[in-house]
From TrEMBL:
Record-annotated Polysaccharide chain length determinant N-terminal domain positions: 12-70
Listed name of the protein: Polysaccharide chain length determinant N-terminal domain-containing protein
TM segment ranges: 31-53, 255-273
Keywords carried by this UniProt record: Cell membrane, Membrane, Transmembrane, Transmembrane helix
Pfam families linked: Wzz (PF02706)
Subcellular location: Cell membrane
Record membrane topology: Multi-pass membrane protein
Domain of life: Bacteria
InterPro entries (UniProt xref): LPS_length_determ_N (IPR003856)
Main location: membrane
Origin species: Raineya orbicola
Length: 287
């Protein structure tokens, strides 16, 4: 029984050794063919990356949203990116207002939270509301229109419109209340000041109290008016930049991918040649 096990183990080692030898002979025999195919694929890959593919210009816009979080903006941007990938320019024009000839230049849209700016954002802004949106386009002459289209798309989302309307109504009510308090405080101040010249003046602990209250109310009024003046939900911190040079192709990636494709094609080609050789030999033996 031990003899049988040792013999089977010996046969397996011989078969494995023979397989390694066959593989070695195969690569040794077809090495020049595989190398030639790899070199040809690398040459075609480099040539096509510079001559066939259109140049891509990359630019980033940084903005904040009062209503949406960064994760929500990322998902909405992914929807636009999917429309670009499937070349659905009719839907892109419907959502953003971008003409088809401009939409056709878009290659990629990608949004992500802008961590650096988030470190210094105001406390009243949602923690993850600062977003960096990067686009790739084959034409860098229409970046302003693309920015306007993207911002318009975010602004006109039904959810954003409702939040913006609620924000406006709340601020208008707050402004009306502040202005009412200003009139009330100012009236009391005038009464007190007038009473100083009367026979029975009104005595207060602090004569400057009304002035301080009015100053605070005026500051609050100014802040609310400023918020109402800039009612838009999207606040662009930095728009797209017009770069003159396109984003370069990665030579390392191009060489690596082309070499891998060439290696695979070379092996398949060599296998086809070997199979044809074996088939011809068997046909000759059967004759």
């Amino acid at each position: 029984m031990n003899t049988t096990n040792s013999q089977s183990q010996s046969y397996e080692e011989i078969d494995l050794l023979e397989l390694i030898i066959k593989i070695y002979k195969f690569f040794k025999k077809r090495f020049l063919l595989i190398l030639a195919v790899m070199i040809a694929c690398i040459g075609l890959g480099v040539l096509s990356s510079f001559l066939v593919f259109q140049p891509r210009y990359q630019s980033t816009m940084i903005f904040q949203s009062r209503s949406m979080t960064a994760s929500e903006v990322v998902e909405i941007t992914n929807t636009l990116n999917n429309l670009v990938r499937e070349e659905n320019y009719n839907e892109i024009e419907k959502l953003t207002g971008l003409p088809k000839d401009i939409a056709k230049n878009l290659e990629k849209l990608e949004a992500a939270p802008n961590r650096e700016i988030q470190k210094n954002i105001d406390k009243d802004i949602r923690k993850d509301s600062t977003i960096a949106l990067t686009i790739e386009t084959t034409n860098n002459e229409n970046l302003e229109k693309i920015q306007q289209g993207i911002v318009s798309y975010f602004e006109n989302l039904p959810y954003v419109q409702k939040r913006k309307q609620l924000f406006k109504e709340n601020k208008e009510r707050l402004l009306a209340q502040i202005q009412k308090d200003i009139k009330h405080t100012d009236s009391i101040k005038r009464i007190v000041e007038a009473s100083l010249f009367a026979k029975n003046p009104i005595i207060l602990n602090s004569n400057s109290g009304f002035s301080k209250d009015l100053l605070l109310l005026y500051e609050a009024e100014g802040k609310v008016k400023e918020e109402l003046a800039f009612i838009d939900d999207i606040k662009v911190i930095k728009g797209f930049t017009h770069y003159q040079k396109p984003r370069k192709f990665s030579i390392r990636d191009t060489l690596g991918i082309s070499a891998l494709i060439g290696f695979i094609v070379g092996i398949l080609w060599s296998l086809v040649i070997e199979f044809n050789k074996i088939i011809r030999q068997r046909e000759q033996n059967t004759i």
